[in-house]
Every structure is written in C-alpha cells, then in structure tokens.
Amino acid sequence: MVNYGGDEVSALVLDIGTSTIRAGYAGDDTPKAVIPTCYGYTEEQGDGDVSMEGSEEGAQLPKKKTTLYVGQNGPSVWRAGMHVAHPVQNSLITDFAPIPAIVSHAFKEVMRTDPSEHPVLVTEPAWNTTENRERMAEIMFEEFDVPAFYIANTGVLNAFAAGKGSALVIDVGQSTASVTPIVDGFVLRKGLSHSGLPQLIYAHAKHTLTTPQPGRPGIQLIPHQLIANRQTVDATFPPKFTLREDRVPGVTDSWRSWYEAREVDEWVQSVAGVLDQGWNDQAAAQRGPRHYEFPTGYNTYFGAERFNVGELYFSHTPQLVASNPNLPKTIPALISSALTACDPDIRQVLLGNIVLTGGGSMLSGFADRLSAELQRNVSHVKIHAPGNPSERRYGGWLGGSILASLGTFHQLWISKEEWKEHGKAIIGQRCK
Amino acid sequence: MSSGVSVSDDCITSYQELMKRKHKYVVYGLNPTFTEIVVLKTSQDADYELFIKEFPNDQCRWAVYDLEYEADDGGKRNKVVFVYWSPGQSSIKQRMVYSASNNALKARLGVALEIQGNDEEDLEFVNVLEKAKRNSR
C-alpha cells in the first residue's frame, strides 16, 4: 500500500474515446481537457530541417521526419499537406505511437500539470484487450513516470454512477454502440455485444446530405478553412462564396474526410432525431423541420429526412438489409443478443436496470424510443438516462473521477514500485 | 472494481444479532468522510412499511431485513433480504461510492439475496416477496 499524503493527493483521470480524449482532476465534475483523439501530421520531403510549425502543439515522433499536430489546434487548423490519422478505432487504441504525444498535450499543455506527480486512472472499454491495457500501463509508468496507475472499465463506471451494481449499460459513442451486462460490479463477458452502428448512421447522413433530394440539390461539404468569404443567402438558395484557391492544392484526402465527418456529425447532433413511437411517415412529416447552415452559407430546413437518419439506430429497411449483408446490429438487436447470452433470472434484473450513456444517445427521442421498443416485448423495463448532458457524455470519466478522488482508493492503485517488481501481470490481478 | 471503503465490525455484529432475531432490520450507511460503512440504526419493528421509510429519497443506504412470509405450502419461512438503496435524487458521488462499496459489505455479511432499489417501486413488498420466494426455491 502506498501513501500519497491522505486526501491531499489529486489523481488525474484519462478517458480515451474514439472522437475525444477527456482528461481532468479526480474529484471534478467535468474534465478540464477535452481534445480530439485524431491528430494531424505532415511528412517532410527530402532531408531538410523538421518543421516545428506551431511549436506549442507540434511534437515529434522519433526516427521519422514527421511533425504531429494535436489538440484543439491540431486537425482543425489547415496546413498544407497535413494528413489526419485516427489512433483509436471502435474505442480501442489501434496505433500507440502518437498516444504519448496526445496524452502529453492534454496533461501538460491544456491542464498545465505534471503527470509524474499524480496517480493516473485510465478508463477502458469492456472489449479492451490484455495487451492494450498492459501497453497503456507501460506508457503511463515508463513514459510519463506516474507514481501510480489504475485502469477501470467504462461500463462498470457508468453502472456505478447510476447507483447500480447490476445493470445493462447501453453506450452509444462516436463509432461504436455497445451493450454491456454487468452483474455485481463485473462485466458478464459472454453477453457483451457491440457494433459499428454509429458509423452506419454517419454514412447514411453523409449520403443524404450530399445527394440531391426532392426540393434541394446535393450539399457541398466544404470546410470553413477553405472559404475566403461568403454572402448571406436565403434558405434553400444556392450559396455565394469564394474559395481560398491557394489552399485547395494543399488539401489531403484524409483531412477532407476528417472535416466532412465533423460537419456531418454536427448536423446529426443538431438536426437529427428519433421518432419515439417507431417509424411512421406521417409522424415524421408532422414534426417541425429544423434549420441548419453549412460553412458555404447554404442553409435550409430539414424535415422527415432528419428522422430517417436516427431511425437507423432502431430499424433497418428490408432494402437496406438486402443491399448490405454485413450491416451492424441495431440497438434492439444488440440488446437481444446480450440478453440471450445471459441466464433468464439475470435477464429480468438487467432489463429493470438499463443505463443509457454516450454522446450518441442524446439524439432527441432516443431514450423514449428505446423504452417503447423494449416495452413491446417485455413487461418490466426501466431506463436510467441522466438528464444532465455532461453526465451522459462523460459518464465514464465522471465515475472514474469520483472513484480516484477517494482516500480509500489508495489501496487499489498500482504503485510504480509494484509495477517494477511484478511487471505486467499485476495489471490483470489488481484491475478486475 | 471497488472503492476500498472498509466495513466496520459493528456491521457484522448487528447482522449476527439479526440472525439471532434480536433485530428485525439493520440500516447501514457510509460515514460522513466516506471511509467506512457503519450501522445507522437497528430496529425490532416488523412493519415493512416502516422499514421502507428508512430510505430517504436523496440518500443512499443499505439494509438487511428479516422477511417473514408464508410459503406456498402454508408454512412460515424467514429470509434475510439485503437492500441496496440508491435513488435517482442522491448525488452522483454517493451513488458511485455506495455502488463501488456494495460488494465489500455483501461479502462481509454473507447475504444471499440482494434487492437493488433505485425507486420506491423496486422496494414494494410484493416485488421483494416475489424475489425472496424465487430465491428460496
């Protein structure tokens, strides 16, 4: 057991998602740093000096003549020839190389703190691999020299934060939707089910926007960084804007798709919705349209199509299924495969204790629709959906923040000394 | 994952007393500094409706209750029910710490049947009775 001076110690909490990294002090209600997980990079041609443009954000990967641009001024700032890469896919870190630079940016540049002086609690998805969590421990101990480390499961954190030892946690993130059965504080692995459903929603929304629809042309998704000026136009009128022609040649495909993903995501978040009682053409038409303006100045009202997008979380049309045999599972399908794997007695407990979390679940009508879908088949369903947006969006981070702030949690931390003595094996023993 | 919160010896003593029919129910909670689980109340009152009044709508609690009921064969049965109460109006910090300490208390007491209560409906007598009967089979 290690002593860090009683309650004086302030641990750091790090929650790495597919779209953003959340970092902050244990005991706080919200993370201090929320930065993009993806990063920009440029590669040097020839053997000239390595560029350190924007030196504060720029950090170098050793052995490669590559400059990284991370944080709020990373991918979102246009730079000639800058590519964008995504080190986290489906909530799993797939490329560890840039992780130290990104985490360092969050801790040192944004939070202005020195991680070598604070225990660090990191969160992980239920389907994280042993190699991944051990690698994370290694990075924290070896590269950040942290005095202590712990890795906690986001599903369990969300269940606990909802006041439940047993729960069915439905987490709708940027790239993955997951259903995690938790019994007495432990993940029931056989029931864990997840799919890339949010990616289908994204693809569908992008297709809807960029292809001509009755009453409007296909919409151009042009980054504001490439627009020199624009004029205000009335809704549905063609946009009037001037491109920054000088920048166009320096645009890479990966930067453009990063931008498009962001714009589409923003459109989904501000315009899309879910019909709370199931699909119905009339109900979709009756809901008021919503206005959205793109960086080109083009703006219009979106009617039924905004519900088409959200509907994909819950049902797929026969045509869609026929055209794509590998469709990711819908939310109801994920729930039913999770429940099928559990004993009937546990099923009832889980259905009475559903916890809804993740930014994607905040689409208007989502919780009501989920409840309607489930009540069609089961008699006793209860859904806990935090009304507070930051609680829903950062549920995992917040749970970790509370846990890591406890004086009594000290006995669970893995200290640097223990890491040195026992190595990787201690991670699996301590963090269950 | 646990909170590291400890269980005071009083919790176990009072539970053993309940098993000897000295109490009808015992209410537990975290001390104000969130370091230890302590006994908040013991009672000999058998009235279930009084028992559920022990659970405030904005505070988490634990309790054990010696449930007496008539089995389907007409015989009298006793079942100790462990209740974890964490209502939606309690603070997220309370919910988090209580949830992360739940296993420690359950393990120290050695209870078999847990009722997870997040609202009053979860603790209604019929629901608890049904779970107790199912658990005794």
TrEMBL record, chain A:
UniProt lists the family membership as follows: Belongs to the actin family.
* CDD domains in the record: ASKHA_NBD_Arp4_ACTL6-like
The record's annotation in PANTHER family points to: ACTIN (PTHR11937)
This protein's name: Actin-related protein
**One Pfam family this sequence matches:** Actin
Note the InterPro entries from the entry: Actin, Actin/actin-like_CS, ATPase_NBD
Q: Which N-terminal stretch is annotated as signal sequence?
A: none
Coiled coil ranges:
none
UniProtKB/TrEMBL annotation, chain B:
Alphabetical keyword list: Actin-binding
Which PROSITE patterns does the protein's record reference?
Answer: ADF_H
Keyword Ion transport: yes or no? Answer: no
Q: Has UniProt tagged this entry with the keyword RNA-binding? A: no
SMART domains xrefs: ADF (SM00102)
Which GO terms are recorded in the biological process aspect for this UniProt protein? actin filament depolymerization
Q: Where in or outside the cell is it found?
A: Nucleus matrix
Q: Name one Pfam family in it.
A: Cofilin_ADF
Q: Which GO molecular function terms does the record list?
A: actin binding
**Domain ADF-H as annotated: residue spans:** 2-133
The entry sums up its family as follows:
Belongs to the actin-binding proteins ADF family.
Q: What name has this protein been given in UniProt?
A: Cofilin
